[in-house]
Write a structure and sequence with these properties.
Tyrosyl-Transfer RNA Synthetase; Rossmann fold; mainly alpha; 14 helices
């Protein structure tokens, strides 16, 4: 059996919440990985609009406004609907039914011990997260994964606990409702660890909308250039003649992503000896980011002019996803003795 045939028997499930414009952190942290996976596995990539409600339930307008923009961004970076299934979570109600059925067998303590439950409550104190939806969102994630019998889920280190919960839930379900022939209804998925994104924000912290330090994938070039030209540098370089330390400068982190080895050597020598100024140092980064985002903007504009086609391909993706989800849900119902 060829490697491609083996890989095509493996399923990948991954999603993103539509809560605002996608930025370079999303591209380098998630989407570049999707670009690789889509040609090696059967991939299901979904808009997690129900998940977005866990933190944006009071004003869900942002979700609706962001949904199609996010899909266009996916297409603009090269996600290919001819090889991957793209769909919207809420258009496949089987997710919700499986979530309900799994909630009947999942101990509350399993949800409470998921690290992100308390972490996000602490980090998002401005939001009222004392809701069942927030407590239960890791189980909805489990339903997302299990409804497609995904064999692998691409996650960073901070999301491994969610995949482990999914494995525990599947294990418990299979123990309770295994078929007579011993076959498992819900296979346990594996965490496919991805490298942490090295994409920094404009201030050197992780690029995040909550920090206000992002560059959007399709941001106008004048805005991109202004942000990069005015981003902070090594505070020791008060004057052009002051030497600096690239390790203390957020711009250096951008060079590590966008610049060649020769350019990085030039930056190291020039900064430490005050041979170059900060604006000179930023120029290669500005050029590289503008070149990268120019391609995204061009493609995005083309897709916006073909919104009918975009909506049709998502409808097709939703239909494909629902067909797979129904097959799984039918087996789940049969295993549980629910024959409605």
């Amino acid at each position: 059996m060829s490697p491609i045939a083996v890989s095509n028997n493996q399923r990948i499930l991954s999603g993103m919440r539509p809560t605002g414009a996608l930025h370079l952190g999303h591209y380098h942290g998630v989407l570049k990985n999707w670009l690789h996976l889509q040609h090696s596995y059967r991939c299901f990539f979904f808009v997690a609009d129900w998940h977005a409600l866990t933190t944006h339930y009071e004003d869900p307008r942002l979700i609706g406004e962001s949904l199609w923009d996010m899909i266009i961004d996916w297409l603009a970076v090269g996600i290919d609907p001819s090889v991957a299934t793209l769909f919207i979570q809420s258009r496949v109600p089987e997710h919700a039914e499986l979530h309900l059925l799994l909630s009947m067998i999942t101990p509350i303590s399993w949800l409470e011990r998921v690290p992100s439950y308390k972490d996000q409550q602490e980090r998002l104190k401005s939001l009222d997260l004392a809701t069942y939806g927030f407590l239960g969102y890791p189980l909805l994630q489990s339903a997302d994964i299990l409804i497609y019998r995904a064999t692998q889920v691409p996650v960073g280190d901070d999301q491994v606990a969610h995949v482990e919960l999914t494995r525990e839930v599947a294990r418990r379900f299979n123990r309770l409702y295994a078929k007579g022939d011993g076959a498992f209804v819900l296979p346990e998925p594996a965490a496919l660890l991805t490298h942490a994104s090295k994409m920094p924000g404009l201030d050197g912290q992780k690029m995040s909308k909550s920090y206000g330090n992002t560059i959007a994938l399709c941001e106008p070039p004048a805005s991109v250039e202004k942000k990069l030209r005015t981003m902070p540098t090594d505070p020791a370089r008060v004057r052009r003649s002051d030497p600096g330390d690239p390790g203390k400068c957020p711009v250096w982190q951008f060079h590590q992503i966008y610049s060649t080895e020769d350019t990085r050597t030039w930056v190291q020598q020039g900064c430490r000896t005050a041979g170059i100024g900060c604006i000179e140092c930023k120029k290669p980064v500005i050029d590289a980011v503008l070149a990268e985002t120019a391609l995204f903007r061009t493609r995005a504009q083309s897709y916006r002019e073909q919104m009918g086609w975009v909506r049709n391909l998502i409808e097709e993706g939703c239909a494909t996803a629902q067909q797979v989800a129904r097959e799984t849900l039918n087996e789940v119902r049969q295993a549980m003795g629910i024959h409605g």
